[in-house]
Amino acid sequence: MLKGKTVILGVTGSIAAYKIANLASMLTKLHCDVHVLMTQNATNFIHPITFETLTNNKCIVDTFDRNFQYNVEHVSLAKRADVVLIAPATANVIAKLAYGLADDMLTTTTLACTCKKIVAPAMNTNMYRNAITQDNLKRLTQFDFEVIAPATGMLACKDIGEGKLPDEQTLLNYILKEIAMEKDMKGVNVLVTAGATQEAIDPVRYITNHSTGKMGYALARDCMLRGANVTLVSGQSALTPPPFTTVISVTSAKEMFDAVTEHAESQDIIIKAAAVADYRPASIAAEKMKKKEDALTIELERTDDILKYLGEHKHPQQFLCGFSMETEHMLENSRKKLEKKHLDMIVANNLKQAGAGFGTDTNVVTMITPQEEIALELMSKEEAAHAIVSQILKIAVAANLFLRAAYTHTIHFLVAEKAEEVLRNMGLF
Ligand code: CTP
Fold first, then answer.
1. How far is the CA of 105 from the centre of ligand 1 (A)?
2. Would you call the peptide bond into 88 cis, given omega within 30 degrees of 0 as the criterion?
3. pLDDT for the residue numbered 257
4. Active-site annotation holds for 59
5. pLDDT at position 429, please?
6. Which one of 223, 271, 371, 382 has the fewest CB atoms closer than 10 angstroms to its CB?
7. Does the structure show a pLDDT above 60 at 422?
8. Strands 206-207, 151-154: parallel, antiparallel or unpaired by DSSP?
9. How far apart are CA 203 and CA 201, in angstroms?
């Protein structure tokens, strides 16, 4: 995922420095070039050799270390970096960065970096809450640093409160968001539905299906990594939702209908990967239904077809993609759904095909549009998600969709560039 990327990890003097060994290892496994810079104080908590062994790169502490291949290593490294993460960041280093002090390898290199810079504070709660630290963090955000909020829990000093360094996966998520994929969806609003709905019979039982949400979550993650603003409307799923998405959890088809239709208008792309119940019990028993000697019949009524409703109400700039799971006549049945629900694309899979369907890590899908059918071979759900989103973008760009996203971008750009002029013309400056 990170092949060809260079990541600088800045480690400062906090006990949480040990977590960065794992982060460095996770990054190396994703094939990126990891360079660890440490402050002198950090070496009291973890030895540079640990990082050198994990990253295969020299871990630099001293700006004037003579054993380097580059003469001005802090500048050379800064030029190559795609992202810098300073974690754990002590109050002292935060203060130095906020005021441009550069008296060691870590602060000098960070000052020389033009790439994205992220800071993860880790310290005692009172130090973190101190107005001086808060002011320094605010200053850093004004200089385009991103600040990762510390976690809450028991700290090294045994106090309980804010100030813990978040876990390695959280830190990695920030790096992935920044550099994992080309940001070809910046400014694009995407709504993805995923998982299974549950239709209550009584307070104990419900009707559902085997969907795990894997495909929908992979789609949401792919769009997020490409820079989109993602809303994930999720039915039942045991998975952890992708970070940096707005998650709306729902239970029934009715709740999904309400959530989706409430947010549909502002979306450029809607992808409906959820397995929605077509029927629900006509009435929900208020108390647990007791068993009797004879057979039981439950009357079912139709739920709303959310996708059909969206197709009938979609605005011309919107791209609507449905999913279709079949066990026979997959192409024929799916094309009928494409037409009936007024979709731009339907992604079909056959439950009976090996490697496709519920709960698997792989899928075998065919992307059907009014013009063509593109069959993808067996691949992971992440790869399938990437291929589906790429195909949506290809069609949308060719059809000049997402103009709204492009306009929003242009307006932001104009306002940022010419804020003074625009405000002056409006008589507000
Ligand atoms: N869908 C929906 N609302 C429903 C039922 C389905 O939005 N009440 C959406 C699903 O999210 C999916 C698509 O419609 O994107 C197709 O779902 P599928 O279950 O394959 O087909 P159905 O339309 O339900 O038709 P059938 O049950 O006859 O196969």
1. 57
2. yes
3. 98
4. no
5. 46
6. 371
7. no
8. unpaired
9. 7
